Amino acid sequence: MSDGREQWKSKIGFILAAAGSAIGLGAVWKLPYVAGTSGGGAFFLIFLVFTLLLGTSLLLAEFIIGRKTQKPPIQAYKELAPGTLWYGLGILGIISSCLILSFYSVVGGWIITYFVRSLTGSLTDPATGDYGALFDSIISNHWEVGAAHLVFIIITILIVQGGIQKGIERASSIMMPSLFIIFIILVIRSLTLDGAMEGVAFFLQPDLSNVDGETILFALGQAFFSLSLGVSIMVTYSSYLGKQESLVRSASSIVGLSVLIALLSGLAIFPGVFAFGLEPNEGPSLIFTVLPAVFSEMAFGSVFLSLFLLLLLFATLTSAFSLLEIVVSSTAKNNPKRRRIAAWVGGISIFLIGVPSNLSYGILSDWHIFGDIFFNQVDFLVSNILLPIGAFLIAVFVPLKINRQDLKEELLRGSKLGTGFFQAWLIVIRYITPIAIMAAFLNVLGIW
Ligand code: TRP
């Protein structure tokens, strides 16, 4: 390309990296616990509808912005809407990404701790028995989880500072397929536990009488979170994509993979919850208490558990790379030295913002802000407020600032779909997405 910007080595590299950003703790850790606390099957159904309709359309919208401008978000918004405040959308994305990474890296640290402990076999040892108590004792061990948190951030920094192609692309192409395989093994074990079907029913049988405004807002937030939408990350990634690739095809693969992992994850967790007499609504610790129990029922369980945790760690890292990448690419342009500085300064600041989240499960557990611990409030603020706002603004921006002909050309290039698809997409972006997000907010605020 003329300005010598790096590009993805291959289309599959882009898909893997974008899917790598999408697939991570959102599907594996967050979805089960949020579904567990907000209505089970009804939540999952609403999440699916939002993902397939609004999520896919918004993913395409972010792709269009990135590929059309070939620039990172702030510069992209400036180019498309010169002289306006729309570049604030890029800044909002950076702030949201930092906040997400701040608690994301805490959970990344938990996974590292669990992984290290799994190597000694102490997590599947039947003598331990009570995995809930085990979680509590591990998590309140501040030095251990603090160190693991720091290690997680440092790995993220080291990979991001190396540049987009070498780091992210190479890593994703091995890790994602492996995670998928071990997930299938896990689901098979889970589904064959005694009492598994109760869990399947909880997860897949929607009981719509459980649904309230909050369920809808959470499902909306979860749909954006698990596709990495609303913070312009997908703008960043697609800005490295060649002009010839079909955006629609890439988006379908990413949404498909991500929904599949969410489904597998629910099918791995909920049968275990019911088979072991646990509660589905225990919150962020859910997978950490259920999975070791399921693995302990498996031949070579401790080996599989270690392998699973390792791959989950990789999936978590590929999402974390994307969160730090947006901060770095926005501040460093293409200068390698500035890239290194931005990665370290950004990464360490994010670590510091995350410390109170980490301590929320220990010495700060009594420190409540608006009635909940710091960790949960940061998660709530980002997932259910900032991401939907970002998504809303992107949905308004795209049809407003990019002309119809350009939109159509970017969207359909390289795909066999016709004008009908373009028009349907435009309706979803222009009307349905902003209205749905507004309605969810107004409803939760009690105004509508
Ligand atoms: N989508 C990732 C996950 O599900 C997390 C993530 C990465 C993210 N980048 C994001 C969430 C940007 C929201 C916005 O684990």
Structure write-up:
Keywords: Membrane, Transmembrane, Transmembrane helix, Transport. Its main location: membrane. This is Sodium-dependent transporter. It comes from Salibacterium salarium. The chain is mostly helical. Helices cover 76% and strands 1% of the residues. The protein is built from 18 helices and 2 strands. Strand 1 and strand 2 form a beta hairpin. Helix 5 runs antiparallel to helix 14, helix 8 runs antiparallel to helix 14 and helix 16 runs antiparallel to helix 18. The longest helix has 32 residues.
- Helicity, in percent? over 70%
Number of discrete helical segments: 18
- Which CATH architecture would you pick? Orthogonal Bundle
* Total strands: 2
CATH superfamily: Hydantoin permease
Number of domains: 1
CATH topology: Hydantoin permease
Report how far apart the termini are: 50 Å
Catalogue the ligands: tryptophan
CATH class: Mainly Alpha
Query: What's the overall average pLDDT, rounded?
Result: 88
Major β-sheet strand ordering:
1-2
Oligomer: single chain
Low-confidence blocks of residues: none
Could you give the order of the helices and strands?
A: HHHHHHHHHHHHHHHEEHHH
Biggest sheet features: 2 strands, antiparallel
Which structural class do you get from the secondary structure elements? Answer: mainly alpha
> What fraction of residues sit in β-strands?
under 5%
Label the overall shape: globular
Subcellular location: Membrane
Organism: Salibacterium salarium
InterPro entries: Na/ntran_symport, SNS_sf, YocR/YhdH-like
Transmembrane segments: 12-29, 41-65, 85-116, 145-164, 176-196, 216-242, 254-278, 298-329, 341-361, 381-400, 421-445
